[in-house]
Amino acid sequence: MSIVKVSEKGVFGEGELTFGGSFVPEPLQKALDQVEEAFLRYKDDPDFERELDYYMHEYIGRPNPLYFAERLTAKLGGAKIYLKREDLNHTGAHKINNTIGQVLLAKRIGAKRIIAETGAGQHGVATATVCALFGIPCTIYMGEVDTKRQELNVFRMEMLGATVVAAKSGNRTLKEAVDEALMDFAQNYKDTFYLLGSAVGPHPYPLMVRHFQSIIGREARKQILEKEGRLPDLITAAVGGGSNAIGLFYPFVDDSSVKIVGVEPAGEGLETGHHAAPLNVGKPDIIHGFKCYVMDDAENCHSIAAGLDYPGVGPEHSYYKAIGRAEYAAITDQEALQAFLDLSKTEGIIPALESSHAVAYAMKTAPNMSKDQIIIVNLSGRGDKDVAQVYELIQRT
Ligand SMILES: *Cc1c(COP(=O)(O)O)cnc(C)c1O
C-alpha cells in the first residue's frame, strides 16, 4: 500500500486539507472526462505500453545515464552527487517524456488536432515536435507578450509545422494562453486533444503527467541500485509545475529512508514577493481548475528560469508538503546562476537555469552530509537555450 492517498477523481489527501480535483464549467468537464476515459483505457494496455517504450527508446534516446559527478563531489567534499541526465533526451529536457505519452493517447482515440499552451515556449516546442512526428495538426496558444519575448521559439514551433496563436486578452501572458486553450478545448473536444505540459491542471492531467514522467524515477532507482547497491539518501529536483520532480520522486515515495526535497525558485528573494515559490510562501487555493498551494501575490510571479515561472504548483507536491513526505526548499536567481556556471566549469555540463536550482540546492547540502551518502539530482534540461540570457546577465553585473 502506497502512502499516497488519491481518489479516483484525482483528489489527493483526506479530510479538510485536500488538493487537486476538478473545478471547471460543465462543457470543459465533458472534455476532461473524455481525456480521463482515454487515459484509464490505455495506460496499462500492453500494446500501448509497447508503443510508448518504442518511442521512449528509439526517439527520445532512453534510458539516459545516471552520471556520477565525480569532480563536483570532490570539490564539495561531502555526499556523492549523481545527475539524472534528462538533458540528454531528444529536444534537451524531460518535457518530451510527457508529450510523447499524451500524443500516443491522442492518436489512439483518433484526435484530428492537438492544442497546447506555452509560456516561454518549451512545452510548445515539445508538443510541436511530437505532432510533427505523427503528422497531427497542432495549435499552440501563447501570450502575445511571450511571443515577442521568445521570438525564436515561435519560429521553432512554426518550423515544426505548428500554428502559434497569440493570446491578446488581459496581461497577454501564460494565464491568458491557458484560458484561450481551455476555451478551444471546451468547444472542440470531439476531435481535439489538449496536451498539457506539467503535473498541474484539473484531473486527470496531474496523474497522467506523473504516469508518463515516472520513467525518470524508475530508471534512476534501477541505476543507483546497480551502481551503489542501495537507495540514495536524498533526491532533489526543481519545481515549476512539478512534472520533472514528481517523475523522479514518485517511484521513491514509499522508500521512507529516502529524503525528498523539491526546489522552488526564490527569485529575487522570498521576502521581496518576486518569486514563484507557492509551497514556501503561499496558501491552498483554486487556480486553473484545481486546488493547490498558490502564491500570495501571483502578479509578482518571477524567476530567472522561465520554465519555473508559475504561481501555482502540482496538487501532488501540495499534498507531499501537507503530509510531510517532502520538503520544499527555495533557491534564488543569483544562487541558480552561480550553480549554472559552477556545473559548467566543473563537469562540462551546462544545465538549464531551471535545473540549476536543484544543482544549487545539492551544492549547498552535500558538504553537510558524509562521504558515504548519496544524492540524486534531476538534471531536467540542458542550458544551451539559456546561454544568451546568462551572457546578458553577466555583462550587466
Ligand atoms: C519546463 C521545465 C521545468 C519546469 O517544469 P516542471 O513541470 O516543474 O518540471 C524544469 N526544467 C526544465 C529544463 C524545463 O524545461
UniProtKB/TrEMBL annotation:
UniProt keyword terms in alphabetical order: Amino-acid biosynthesis, Aromatic amino acid biosynthesis, Lyase, Pyridoxal phosphate, Tryptophan biosynthesis
Annotated coiled-coil segments of the chain: none
Enzyme class: lyase
Residues bearing the modification N6-(pyridoxal phosphate)lysine: K95
Annotated ranges, domain Tryptophan synthase beta chain-like PALP: 61-381
PANTHER family: TRYPTOPHAN SYNTHASE, TRYPTOPHAN SYNTHASE-RELATED
Entry protein name: Tryptophan synthase beta chain
